[in-house]
Amino acid sequence: MKGLLAEFKEFINRGNVIDMAVGIIIGAAFTAIVTSLTEDIINPLIKLITGGNGTDVAGLTIPVAGTANGIDFGAFISAIINFLIVAWVVFMIVKAFNKMKDGTAKLPFLRNAKGEEVIEHAPTCPFCLEEINVGATRCPHCTAELSAPAAVTVEVVEK
C-alpha cells in the first residue's frame, strides 16, 4: 500500500500533471468567456441583422412538431462561432509558445577552451534520429544497439 501511495505522490508531483490541471481550469474559464461572448453579444447582433424578435433568430429556426425547439440553426451557428474563437485562441497560444521556444535558440552561445562560440547538440540515434540520453548504448525508441555510448556533439559557430 505504501508503494502505491508513493507512486501516486510521484505521479501527482510531476510537472506535466500540474500543467495539465492548470490548462484544463483555464480552458474551462476561457470557454465560459467565449460562450458569454457568443450568447450575449454575437447572437443578439445576428438577431438584429436577421430581424429576430429577441427570443429567436428569425428565419433560422424551423419548427418541428413534437419538439420544444425544432431545428435551431442559430444555436448551431453559435456553436460554430464558439469553436472558431476557441480554435483561434489556441492557435495564437501555440504560435506564441513556438515563438518563445524559438527565441531561446538565440541565447548567448557557450564558449569552448579556445574561446570559440559553440552550440551543444543532444545525442541522436543514427537509425531513427530521435534524441537519446548521454551515455546510452541502445536507443529507447527503435531499440537499435549503438556502436559507442551516445555523446553530446559540439558545433563551432561560424561568424
TrEMBL record:
Q: What does this protein do?
A: Channel that opens in response to stretch forces in the membrane lipid bilayer. May participate in the regulation of osmotic pressure changes within the cell.
Give GO cellular component annotations, separated by semicolons: plasma membrane
State the PROSITE patterns in the record: MSCL
Source organism of this protein record: Adlercreutzia caecimuris B7
Name it: Large-conductance mechanosensitive channel
- Superkingdom of this entry's organism? Bacteria
Q: Where are the transmembrane segments?
A: 20-38, 73-94
> What broad class describes the main subcellular location of this protein?
membrane
Q: Does the keyword Chloroplast apply?
A: no
Give the subcellular location.
Cell membrane
Family affiliation: Belongs to the MscL family.
Q: Does the keyword Membrane apply?
A: yes
Task: Give UniProt keywords alphabetically.
Answer: Cell membrane, Ion channel, Ion transport, Membrane, Transmembrane, Transmembrane helix, Transport
